[in-house]
Design brief:
The chain is α+β, with helices and mostly antiparallel strands and 155 residues long. Helices cover 28% and strands 27% of the residues. The longest helix has 12 residues. The protein is globular, with a radius of gyration of 14 Å.
């Protein structure tokens, strides 16, 4: 995982509307990157829906929430629609961001390789990593209270 205090790597990922999105676009706003292994798996659906349910709390902390997985933009679009997710879901299909953020899970289920670990990065308005949580087990859920506390400190 990237160390706290380091500049977060920029990325160019595609959103569900086929737009290129970069971290730099969010300069001036706190960003929470939620890396998740794969859309429609039980824990990933639970995580993204929990974030959506509490979305107003993140907005009140001047935070832009972004979900990132290796799924295609088309799969993420349907996943977002099915689960009424209104924050950006970005496709890292080429697995560049998960490598840059050091959150590659080498072995997933069914022989799939190199999916995102369940990990969260809080990045401040200047692009500096302020909080990191990389979970050891794919079924573990992020500590949402710790994430919000990190954002509160930046607010």
């Amino acid at each position: 995982m990237l160390p706290i205090g380091q500049k977060a790597p920029d990325f160019k990922l595609i959103d569900t509307e086929k737009n290129e999105v970069t971290l730099e676009q969010f300069r001036g706003k706190n960003v929470v990157l939620f890396f998740f292994p794969m859309a429609w798996t039980g824990p990933c659906t639970k995580e993204m829906c929990a974030i959506q349910e509490d979305y107003a709390a993140y907005q009140s902390l001047n935070a832009q929430i972004i979900g990132v997985s290796i799924d295609t933009l088309f799969a993420l679009k349907r996943f977002g629609e099915d689960n009424k997710i209104n924050f950006p879901l970005l496709s890292d299909f080429n697995k560049i961001a998960i490598k840059d953020y050091d959150v590659v899970h080498a072995e997933f289920a069914f022989g799939y390789k190199d999916v995102a670990k369940r990990a969260t990065y809080v990045i401040d308005k200047d692009g500096i990593v302020r909080f990191v949580e990389v979970l050891p087990q794919l079924g573990d859920m992020p500590n949402m209270e710790a994430i919000k506390a990190a954002l509160q400190e930046l607010h």
